[in-house]
Amino acid sequence: MTARPSKSALIVVDMQNGFCHPKGSLPSLGMSLADVDRSVRQSALAVEQARAADLPVIFTRHVYRPGRADEGQNLTALSADLAGIDGLAAGSWDGGVIDELGWTPADLTVDKVRFDAFLWTSMDPLLQGLGVTHLQVCGVVTNICVESTVRAAFMRDYPVTLLGDACAAQTPRLHDLGLEVMGAVGLATVVSLADGYQVTNQIGASTGAAV
Q: How far apart are CA 122 and CA 70, in angstroms?
């Protein structure tokens, strides 16, 4: 039996106003991300490259329904103040993808209510339907939703290339630790767009240095 050709997709994790815009809900609560401008800039570059290479681009959004019954007790406890300002509400500006990435309603979008973009979502069926066998991932937060999604992808047998400089966390140390953990245990190959990595379907042809 002939092996199916490899096909890659770009997953853009939670690059939303609530996380990335200075007026977003998380920054307003004192939970801004370090180096977020770099993450936005490099994620926009990744999206541009993926579209130029005719690769699927899948955006995730961490959003809650009205009343927030789907938020769950653990996430409510982690960020109790977020509910008070109705942060990351579905359909709100805060929950939307930041403008710099050029998102439109026609784009492939997976909404989620947990860190892991595969948990209780259509992510895996979507990837299978697209024939995707490899993932390139960027977004926020490096050591939370990005890492949870990378771990879930790895456990579903998707090789992952992580665009390290297109991610961000609350501190540079947490960002670096997240990249180190994912790279050191083999959950992902960590690369840098700034060092020449290109988002392409030619997996392994464009390496870029690890960050």
A: 16
Please report which helix (H) or strand (E) contains residue 50, including its range. helix 36-52
Neighbours of 22 (CB within 10 A): 10
In angstroms, the CA 197 to CA 76 distance is 38
CATH code, domain carrying 63: 3.40.50.850
Q: Which class for 165: exposed (0-12), middle (13-18), buried (19 or more C-beta within 10 A)?
A: buried
In a domain, 199, yes or no: no
Domain with 87 in it: 8-191
Q: Is residue 1 part of a domain?
A: no
For residue range 93-131, list pLDDT tens digits in order. Answer: 999 999 999 999 999 999 999 999 999 999 999 999 999
- CA 170-172-177 angle, 5° bins: 95
As a whole number of angstroms, the distance between CA 46 and CA 57 comes to 9
* DSSP sequence for 91-137: TSTTTSBPGGG---TTSEEEEESSSSTTTTSSHHHHHHHHT--EEEE
What's the pTM? 0.94
Tally of structural domains, the chain: 1
Percent of the chain with pLDDT over 90: 91
**pLDDT at position 209:** 43
CA dihedral 167, 158, 149, 135 (to 10 degrees): 30
